[in-house]
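INTERNAL AUDIT FORM
Audit reference: QA-55
Scope: verify that the stored structure record matches its stored sequence.
Auditor: D.O.
Record contents follow.
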Amino acid sequence: MDKFKVDWSNPEQVAAARSERINYLEKLKVKNQLLNDEVAALQKEGMSMEDIARNKVEQRNQDRINSYIKSGNMEGLEAMKARNLSQYGRQEGPTADQLFAQKGSWEEVVYGSVRSSPAMDVLTGLYK
């Protein structure tokens, strides 16, 4: 077992992980399109990519916190806060400036939430 709680030598577990990954990638496509539409609308209203990134980062951090609260996973919430504090110096998660320093552009900060991990695609046999 690994951090994904999958025994990669077990074909049934790999098949289940693959199915979950396919569903995740489909949802990610929809999320990406919605984000593209939202960014285009905000830019049309005159917002800069930096302003959009700053708003999206705080929104993502709060959404993540709320998802733990909504699911009643307070143990997970506390673990996430501890990881964030260790990694970013604050429980809420990264700041837009921290992500900009890491990614190098405001566009990368905005679209970072709709990128998937090629490593997981490889593990589940979906890498093209």
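Auditor finding: record pair retrieved intact. The mean pLDDT is 91.
Action required: none
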